[in-house]
Amino acid sequence: MTYAIMLVRIPADSTLHEAVDRLNADFDPDADLPLLRLTDVQRAAWDRILDRVSGEIGAVESAEYLYSLTFETVGPPGRVQFDYCGDTAGVEVAYRHSGAGASAVMELAYRIARIAEEESGLTGYDFEVDQPIRTGDPARAAARMSAVSDWARHHLS
């Protein structure tokens, strides 16, 4: 299980929720994922995101797959994964952090998502706690992360 933050490109005539609804309506669980075909602008945004995160946060391990570009943070406070597809992206953190650890890893996740917003023009939203990334409070996300992690540790172990 992972805590997920979504980033999407919102068309000019649309709201965030309409854009997400369109993505969900177009999703076919039985179809193959579309191959990644980034425009030059999207590739440049990826390069800027990767450069900023590496420079401001620290080392990451990156890879290019048939369907997305991805990186993971290396070292403390924990692994944060970022996946980029051009018009969508996502930040994921495994539910295993609680207390101060949850605060540190969610600060990192929000920082990465905000960098992605700035460099790509995507809009981030945290549906777990119903708040936009740009103005949202990572402490709310950390409280959710901590509560779910603690519940899982006590009930699923």
Low-confidence stretches: none
Supply the number of helical segments.
4
Beta-strand fraction estimate: 15-25%
Major sheet: order of its strands? 2-3-4-5-1-6-7
Number of strands: 7
Structural class: alpha+beta
Helical content (DSSP H or I, runs of 4+): 40-55%
Largest sheet: 7 strands, antiparallel
Oligomer state equals single chain
Intertermini distance? 14 Å
- Give the mean pLDDT: 94
The rough form would be described as globular
The succession of helices and strands, N to C, reads EHHEEEEHEEH
- The rounded Rg comes to 16 Å
Topology readout:
Blueprint (H helix, E strand, L loop, with lengths): L1 E7 L7 H11 L13 H17 L3 E5 L4 E5 L7 E4 L3 E7 L5 H21 L2 E4 L4 E2 L5 H18 L2
Antiparallel strand pairs: 1-5, 1-6, 2-3, 3-4, 4-5, 6-7
Helix pairs in contact: 2-3, 3-4
